[in-house]
Amino acid sequence: MRDQGESRSTTYTTVSAGSEFRHELEIRRSRFITVLARTSSENDTRDLLAGLRKEFHDARHHCSALVLGPDRDTQRSNDDGEPSGTAGLPMLEAMVRRETAPGVSDLSDVSAVVVRYFGGVLLGAGGLIRAYSESVSTALDLAPLVRRSRLRICRVSAAHQHAGRLENDLRTAGYQLQPTTYGPLQAELVLAVPDRASAIAGAKELVLSLTAGISELHSGETSWIDQDLRRGHHD
Q1: Which residues have CB under 8 Å from 119's CB, separation 6+?
Q2: With contact defined as beta carbons under 8 Å apart, do 191 and 157 qualify?
Q3: Plot region of 75 (φ>0 → left; ψ -120 to 50 → alpha; else → beta)
Q4: From CA 41, how far away is CA 32, in angstroms rounded?
Q5: For residue 79, which of 47, 121, 39, 125 has the smallest C-alpha distance?
Q6: Could you tell me if residue 100 is left (phi over 0), alpha (psi between -120 and 50 degrees) or otherwise beta?
Q7: Distance of alpha carbon 204 from alpha carbon 215, whole angstroms
Q8: Which of 25, 147, 19, 36 is nearest to 95 (CA)?
């Protein structure tokens, strides 16, 4: 059972934290500069947009879209003066429909801003929709993506003489472990387990098996971690 306030989703895909990712397309003389950024709130998006309005102060449009939260329950878009539905919404749809693995669309915690310098050629509604959608899609093709996973931090107590072997066996089984702490009487192993009931149950069974029933795994708090992806796909 998930804790109150925790998301239904335990994994999703986002862009790497840190600096913004930028990509530019020229379409019928107009420049479309796409900026993607990892964001955790609508305030982050507003700050990003304010900075880009200042940097590209002479551009005609600064259109934006955002998707936030592991469950993607916050979605916004803005056309910034382009005809209604021709900029922000295509950008948002490019993000929401983005497949990060075959049959999986889970991109979130991402804001996109497309800065447009008008080149003198009218694109029409259909042309604008294609241009803004392509700008975001192409940027996502090239942007560094990560899988963000919620892990349950679990602890196991073991006798000093058994702790080293147990740690090695758990690492061999694929679990991530923090450095073992050796107390006066026992050692404590701390490992991260995918925050799913089946995964936690499997880890508990493994610990019991490895220690002949002497040690038990106790689950605790959760933590989100990033895992690099190549070409935007799940491993």
Answers
A1: 26, 28, 29, 30, 31
A2: no
A3: beta
A4: 25
A5: 125
A6: alpha
A7: 9
A8: 36
Q: What is the pLDDT of residues 42-60, one digit of tens each?
A: 999 999 999 999 999 999 9
Q: Which residues pair with 22 in a beta bridge?
A: 35
The two tokens of residue 28 are: 């019928």
Residue 20 DSSP class: -
End-to-end CA distance of the chain: 27
Pairwise CA distance, residues 47 & 39, whole Å: 10
Judge whether 61 and 80 are in contact, CB under 8 Å: yes
- pTM value is 0.81
φ/ψ of 226, rounded to 5, equals: -105, 140
Q: What is the pLDDT of residues 99-116, one digit of tens each?
A: 998 999 999 999 999 999
